[in-house]
Sequence to fold (86 residues):
Amino acid sequence: MTTHEVEEMLDITKKTLIYYENEGLVKPLRDNNNYRCYNQDDVSKIKFILLLREMDCTIEEIKQIINKKKSIRDVLENKKDLIKQR
Fold:
């Protein structure tokens, strides 16, 4: 799947996709022309990232979840505690 197809499917910008790649959250393959090629796993991971961003997770928290250094539950529990404090 091309960058443009992913942009349209997920309603996000190319800049966002490149940012996620630069942060090491997704690693799309490249074709012979060096264009990014997203597979279904990449798209699923981006959807997951977008969901976590909607829940106010930071990029650092998302990295920890993806790298299995923290569980989603731990991150969201912490968010709940912060909301209660406010």
Notes: The mean pLDDT is 93. The CA atoms of residues 21 and 27 lie 6 Å apart. The first strand starts at residue 29 and ends at 30.
